[in-house]
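Hi L.,

As promised, Zinc finger MYND domain-containing protein 12-like isoform X1:
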Amino acid sequence: MRVVNICTATQERSPGTVCLKMAATISSVQCMGKITENEMQRQTDVITSIKPIALPKGVKKLCELCKKPAFMQCLQCRVTFYCGSDHQTSDWEGIHDQICTQLIPLRSPEPHFSTESKRKEHADELFQQKRQLLQLTRAVGQKLLFEGKAEKAIPAVLQSLHFAIEVYGLSSIELVTSYLMLAEACIGLHRLKEAEDYLSQAQWTVLMVPDCDYRIKSQVHRQIGRLCEVKGDYEEALRHLAEDVYHCSIVTSTDDVETSGGYFHMGNIFLKLGKTDKAETLYYRVLKIWHKYLTGIVTFNVEEEEKSSSLLTSPKMINLGKAQEAEAVKVLSAIHAWYSEMSDRHQLEFSYSCKTQALLNFVIGDRSQAKVCAERALEALGDDEKKQHTRRAIASFLNLCRTTPQPSLSRR
Ligand SMILES: [Zn+2]
Ligand SMILES: [Zn+2]
């Protein structure tokens, strides 16, 4: 990680005014690099004391994160600038170390080309590179969000927004994913005004696209619902989550795992409102949906393992994607914690939740933990004669956990 102070000169490299607004928001949000006048002066002194690096004249350099005047420069790529070491460090740790050198051709002056076709070829290459960087920065940001590192995710998600604007333009629906991720990060950090700004951008973009995908509408409503929940506006939150469920069920179904996220958040709100019965109904519905979904995957994977071992081929296992796995862990753990507290009154449901935990662990490759959860499910069921069928089903799954080896493709 190398940086050098620079002379302040050059034009803003922001792809658009929205970006500038976003970046300004981030600077106030993150509070990582608030520079005092003394510090500014100190940095300026340092700048004047070092030999300036050759930069285009007559234009102003701006900080990569907050778009305030820049005083430092990444020595590795020399095309990225910062207001101070705090923002440089945050950017480096969040995303810049992974894209540093790739930014050089994107931010350097266009070379001279002997023919128009060569110039076009170069432009096409840069366009493809921006698309790849969009995917990379989005994936990095998403991963950090899944890991609960909201603050660290912001530089990567901001970069994804910049690349989305450069590739698709300012009013494209492709920007919505980045807006939602930024809103999610800000909600996680309780920076609600900023989250609201990003969600307004997302909503506005969706409104501007008449044939917008229902799935995107659902995601926007879900995030707004979550923001309203955090703000304590439960009525409005429930309204948005109902919209989320409605739009999501059009593209999936009312009993799809994707739709169940809306039920889960609605359940959380009913719980806060003291409407425990409604919350329980929704939580149980979420459990049932995941139970069915995970059972399907377990059945498929076990058959696939058996088939491949007899044919001596590699099994083509179904894995949850990273996003789905993160959601499953979060949602099912929260519901399981609630049923654990209520296990005296909801013994059967608690057992069912243990079984769902067992299925989830089995699918993500932790079969010893799956076994522990299945044993707990069996234990929680008690000796009631009426539950023989359920008992047999759990015992059969437990047997599966004991007899099938840990998959080599385990991601844990
Ligand atoms: Zn800055
Ligand atoms: Zn760099």
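Residues 74, 76-77, 80, 96, 100 surround zinc ion (ligand 2) (CB under 6 Å).

Thanks again for sending the construct details.

K.
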